Amino acid sequence: MPSSNRQTILTARNSNYPGVRIKALRLALGITTRGVEEYSRRISRLAGNKAFLIPHSSLSEMEKPGAEPPGICKLFSLCVIYRVSFRDLLDIYGLNLEEIPRWQMEIQLPQTHLISPDVHDLNRRVTFPVKINPELDLSETHLLSRMVQAWGEIPLAFLQHVGIKKRLYGYVGMKDFTLHPFIPPGSLVQIDDRDTRIQSRGWETNFDRPIYFLQLREGFACGWCQVDGGNLSIIPFSASRWPVRRFPFPGDVDVVGRVTGVAMSLTSHRPKVLSDIADRSA
């Protein structure tokens, strides 16, 4: 985005009204409301969709204090015409895309599903360990704060190149007790989608046994697997008290990949989990 246009956004942010800030963008470019209408007409023709058209009367309403946000197609047209990113335009209306992952964790769905690790603002900087204390014995357990000798700030774009998006991630639903308490409901799992071949033997303990993330006809599942003939069985952890589930394979189930990592809470929702187990065994 041109620096002068970004400065206009920053200046307009002093206003509590999105409409005033939208108008400031237009004025900074010296475009009339009818000019915006004509540009948006060209966009709607290119898209083959009249929803991208912004009549000058509609734009005048958008620019009023307290006006309702326009539809998504009109927002798209404004991004094209005003040379602003969609993220910046949503921010004007109080919508921060970076809040989506945090709110997703607040809205805990009952069913197991895949999640996206998308980062919307690659220029945003995050704190990251840049130097590990060389005197520590990494074979022993330590607090992370004592392991890191120096912290620094790096752009999120850098992390995009070190593997965040080279793996899939899944969420174990709050009603999915298949591997509880081995992997409790609410856990996040990392998935290697290159490893989709079910390994039915070759481990000594449950800690060695491969865990797979599966796509079913009606949702997802996460568990140990066994293939017998034309059926795939999802094997639960014995303490979960869940039954073995069998599906025609590969007809009714696809292997998304092997679970290679897990992040879970040891305290959150534990009373609810124990209550649900008690209800099932009653």
Summarize the model shown:
With 282 residues, the protein is of the alpha+beta class.
Walk me through the structure.
- It is a single chain.
- By secondary structure, the chain is an alpha+beta fold.
- It has 3 domains: 3-95, 434 Repressor (Amino-terminal Domain) (Orthogonal Bundle), CATH 1.10.260.40; 121-164, no CATH class; 167-281, Umud Fragment, subunit A.
- 32% of the residues lie in helices and 22% in strands.
- It is built from 10 helices and 10 strands.
- The chain has helices at residues 3-12, 18-29, 33-47, 56-62, 72-82, 86-92, 100-106, 144-147, 156-159, 270-281; strands at 113-115, 125-132, 148-155, 168-171, 188-192, 212-216, 219-228, 231-235, 245-248, 253-263.
- The protein has an 8-stranded antiparallel beta sheet, with no helix packed on it.
- A hairpin with a 2-residue loop joins strand 6 and strand 7 (219-228).
- Helix 1 (3-12) packs antiparallel against helix 2 and helix 3 (33-47) packs across helix 5.
- The longest helix is centred in the N-terminal third of the chain and has 15 residues, at 33-47.
- The protein is elongated, with a radius of gyration of 26 Å.
- The termini are far apart.
Defining traits:
single chain; alpha+beta; 434 Repressor (Amino-terminal Domain); elongated
Question: Layout of helices and strands, plus pairs?
Answer:
Elements: H1 3-12, H2 18-29, H3 33-47, H4 56-62, H5 72-82, H6 86-92, H7 100-106, E1 113-115, E2 125-132, H8 144-147, E3 148-155, H9 156-159, E4 168-171, E5 188-192, E6 212-216, E7 219-228, E8 231-235, E9 245-248, E10 253-263, H10 270-281
Antiparallel strand pairs: 1-4, 2-3, 4-5, 5-10, 6-7, 6-10, 7-8, 8-9
Helix pairs in contact: 1-2, 3-4, 3-5
